[in-house]
Amino acid sequence: MEKEQIKALREQVMPALVCKKEEFQMLGYEQVTIDEIWDCLFYKKWKKLKEEKKLFEIVNDILTLSVNEYMTYITVQSHQETNWFNDDNLEALQELF
């Protein structure tokens, strides 16, 4: 899929993304964003697609995304993004040793 197609698809399913965001917020996950939900689905659930999904399948994936799947994705992302050897974290590491 090309960037323009992905952007158009995201706009097309925006009501489902907003609905999922509001659901998570009602469950107490106030920090959730539509971008994070989309990335979770795009990079986790849809990353190994061999064929294009139909619109109803994409909407179903959005609406059935569980808090557990989302939180697992966010946790893994945060661990991958943490750079323990930058200046701020280097001081903390030196204090440990």
TrEMBL record:
InterPro entries, alphabetized: Post-transcriptional_regulator
Pfam families: Post_transc_reg
Protein name: ComN-like post-transcriptional regulator
Organism: Paranoxybacillus vitaminiphilus
